[in-house]
Amino acid sequence: MGRRADRDAIAVVPWDRRSASQRSELAALLAAYHLQTESEKGTSVVSIEHLPVRYAAEVTGPQHVFVDDVVLIARVRDPDVNQDRELARDLDRSQDLERAQDLAVGCLVITSRGAGVLELRRLWTDPAHRGLGVASALLEAAHAHAARVGASSLRLSVWDWRTDAIGLYERLGYTGVDPWDDRDRLCCLERAL
Fold first, then answer.
1. Separation between Cα atoms, residue 101 and residue 76, nearest integer Å
2. N-acetyltransferase domain spans which residues (predicted)?
3. Would you call 161 helix, strand, or coil by DSSP?
4. CB atoms near residue 148 (< 10 Å)
5. Confidence band (pLDDT; 50, 70, 90) for 2?
6. What are the DSSP E strand ranges found in 10-165?
7. Which of 55, 79, 136, 188 is the most buried (most CB within 10 A)?
8. Rounded distance, CA 84 to CA 9, Å?
9. 44-101, pLDDT tens digit by residue?
10. What gap in Å lies between CA 152 and CA 52, rounded to an integer?
């Protein structure tokens, strides 16, 4: 069993696309997600400039690409927050003080596919923060959002080599369905609400 964080230490919040600092945080999370995914596919991509165009656009302009989506950010308290607060005060940098309070460590994009169907995409937890319950917290928030908007089902796709993620989805009630995406090795799952 992985390490777990105090649930109160993880906050899932809606992404504020107007905030430059939050755009930067989301861009960093998406860059890590896409670079890791391309690496797992066996594609040598060393920077976002070498990502497929649609993925690079997510990283460089998430406020444009996800304009109609709900984006959730998972934040955890920085264990060095007291030291960072002292540094920020010493430097009289209030922006650093705000950032020292918590770290963006995960993201999830919720896209409406019409007819009460929501698709979950870009679920990512920073590798240094895995095993703390970040992905579970993001999924719980997505499920709550789906209930609020009256969705009938949630769907997602995941690469078949991401067995830990598939196990998590199955534990949360997702089951395999006929694929809506024909990419090789991509598993499609759905959960009725």
1. 9
2. 51-193
3. coil
4. 8
5. very low
6. 10-14, 70-77, 102-112, 117-125, 153-159
7. 55
8. 17
9. 898 999 999 999 999 999 999 999 999 999 999 866 544 544 544 554 444 444 444 6
10. 32
Helix (H, G, I), strand (E, B) or coil at 192: strand
Contact between 106 and 134 (Cβ < 8 Å): yes
Tell me the average pLDDT across 19-39.
96
Residues 14-25: b if buried by 16+ CB within 10 A, e if exposed: ebeeeeeebbeb
What residues form DSSP beta bridges with 14?
Answer: 72
Distance separating alpha carbons of residues 62 and 66, to the nearest angstrom: 6
Give the distance from CA 144 to its chain's centroid: 16
pTM of the model: 0.86
Name the residue with tokens 């917290």.
Answer: 137
Q: Tokens 């670079």 sit at which residue? A: 35
Pairing state between β 10-14 and 70-77: antiparallel
In terms of residues, how long is the chain? 193
What is the three-class DSSP state of 145? helix
Angle CA(85)–CA(87)–CA(89) in degrees, nearest 5? 70
174 token code pair: 């997702």
163-171 vs 134-149: helix crossing angle, rounded to 10: 50
Q: What CATH architecture does domain 7-192 belong to?
A: 3-Layer(aba) Sandwich (3.40)
pLDDT of the residue at 77: 82
